[in-house]
Specification:
2 copies of one chain form a homodimer. The first copy, chain A, is α+β, with helices and mostly antiparallel strands. The first copy, chain A, is elongated and about 90 Å long. The interface between A and B is medium-sized, with 24 and 25 residues. The first copy, chain A, binds a DNA duplex (30 and 30 nucleotides) through α2 and α3.
Chain lengths: ~350, ~350
DNA sequence: TGCTGGCACTCGCACGCGCTGAGTGCCAAG
DNA sequence: CTTGGCACTCAGCGCGTGCGAGTGCCAGCA
């Protein structure tokens, strides 16, 4: 186990390294000057050697200072640093900026710009696009007395099918009836509107069939949710220019990753549900993002998270500040969504 | 006026310069070696001096070769180079790739990827997003006997107002009648559906009012068209890494410009209607794009162009090839849109 | 008049060199 | 366990040099 002071040294290294844009690593002497560690450079050197043995820091080349490794950043984020809260004026600014939004797209657009500006990194906002798709047709087929196949056709031409085991046998006539009622209500309507359009449908059926109808409906609703397209908005790519001074090589795979929406959606999707997640360097499954960190968090209008947002930046980032900004923005976006 | 051979020299310079990624300018000797100009380097030198006097080429520093200026590229594009047609296999590939699209968004997404890949540059596709907005309310106010104000409120909360000079005086009662009929038909409906919903409205009015009703309706339709949101999709930003070897400075403003959708929309909008437009370097109004060229063209499902697409890349680009790709893609996208 | 070869000149770039300074590891003493 | 001292390492920087591609100019030739 690392002693208290060694952790303190690691913290100091991370802070110093992250605090400057210079390509230099941080050395023992500079550390003792900038931080009140209460020990001499020589002691710090010993600690650094120990930290290096443990894999928390590394030297880019012999006789240079040390820089944190992914493992070092991980420890820093987990144990040594909190989330830096936004100041009151910052919070006000966030709120004001988001309050001006006129519709969902505008909210997302503003959010992405805001987040990019606050963190000076690349911002990514994922949001469900419930509004666009509409139902073209719903088909129900009886495969066995208590087994129905549901086929959903959307106006985009996508076809989804589900098997349904009914709680009770379901006659052909009831099935035809349900099919007709269902289509007359939902055909041409938006996914988002479907739940309320069908909620009283079971009432029109005999008591014995209601359970089955309810089952079919809930399967339909589930399918719709899965079909809901997830969209992404990205901003602040110009901040990539601050990456490193060497960066043609660094920046390219990142730009490529940002264009692969699938990659990003997966990235955000993997992150824990609603609590904040930080993925550092090689912790990102996607290889192109191996020298970047992704800070993401869920957000939503009510209590639970319906979507994710976050930023991607160099592993050498100000974690507490970034986490603070991401958390604050997510919170206010949730608030705005709840109001509207 | 420039002699035939001098134009040939300019063409050779542009081709050589564009053909390599090296930061070197092109000199007289190399030119005579790679192109069959039939004259000696010395002659070419004289021609180059003349071309420089006219402002078509420049030398980055004394005693280096020459590189084309914006004016030189302009001449090249206008007079010296045609549009390089795609080969048959390329055309087939384009068509196959686009044929797989399932909906408009998918078409646009595929187009942007395709264009980025073909040209190895940043692709931009603008498309009208007619489908999303709906009308909340239309208000008509009588300001004078033959003067009406039209106020349009959309579901996104946007408000547009227009003055209308009527061909004939229009009574309060007729106005109220029109207002009521109009709203009952279009409230809650999509912009795209409005034209057909109101087309027979004038029939319900007295002959003397029909002219005015028609005027009001056409103003409304115009307003809707203007309100139609224009959306953008961008791809291939990773190609920016091929810009120059110096590029932190070059790339940044370009990334910034790409994020300013307004800038891009304007850029595409300014371009000529349906014929291909090439804006070279400083011809672009937006300063950040002063070292890039934009090749754009209109596309649409029928004969006329409803939207634009194009690429932005370094002024040092393969113009014939890029123009060929842009034109081919626009053509096939139009075809796909017409089919669906 | 226009093309050509020759020649002197320019200057960016790559290479090699030595210096400097920040940083390290190790060691002996407190 | 901490500390000061010491020898060592090495990336980065500035400088001088040679090379080579390229130019402008000029005199001669068709």
């Amino acid at each position: 186990m690392l002693s208290e002071r060694r952790l303190e040294v690691l913290r100091a290294i991370v802070q110093d390294y992250v605090g400057t844009d210079e390509p230099v690593a941080v050395g023992s002497k500079a550390l003792t000057e900038r931080h009140r560690l209460g020990v001499s450079p020589a002691t710090v050197r010993n600690d650094m050697a120990a930290l290096e043995d443990e894999g928390y820091i590394a030297q880019p080349h012999t006789s240079a200072g040390r820089i944190p490794t992914d493992k070092g950043y991980r420890l820093f984020v987990d144990k040594l640093a909190g989330v830096k809260p936004m100041t009151a004026p910052e919070r006000r600014a966030i709120q004001n900026f988001l309050d001006g939004a006129v519709d969902l797209d505008d909210v997302v657009g503003r959010t992405v710009r805001l987040l990019a500006q606050l963190t000076r990194q690349v911002a990514v906002v994922q949001y469900p696009s419930l509004t666009r798709s509409t139902v073209r047709h719903v088909e129900l087929l009886s495969l066995a007395p208590a087994r129905v196949m549901l086929v959903l056709i959307t106006d985009t031409g996508r076809v989804e099918q589900r098997m349904i085991d009914c709680p009770a046998p379901f006659g052909e006539t009831s099935l035809a009836d349900l099919r007709a009622r269902l289509n007359s209500r939902v055909a041409g309507r938006r996914f988002a509107d479907v739940p309320q359009l069908v909620q009283d449908l079971p009432d029109a059926f005999e008591a014995e069939d209601r359970g089955t109808v309810a089952t079919v409906l809930s399967t339909l609703l589930e399918t719709l949710v899965e079909e809901t397209e997830e969209r992404l908005m990205i901003g602040g790519t110009a901040n990539l220019t601050r990456f490193g001074h060497d960066f043609p090589l660094t920046i390219r795979p990142v730009l490529e990753a940002l264009e692969e929406q699938v990659v990003l959606l997966k990235l955000l999707g993997e992150a824990g549900d609603s609590s904040m997640t930080v993925r550092i360097g090689h912790e990102n499954a996607y290889e192109g993002l191996n020298s970047t960190s992704v800070v993401s968090v869920g957000y939503g209008s009510g209590g639970e998270a319906v979507a994710k947002l976050g930023v991607v930046g160099p592993t050498r980032m100000d974690y507490p500040g970034t986490m603070g900004a991401v958390r604050a923005v997510a919170r206010y976006v949730g608030q705005i969504l709840a109001e509207s």
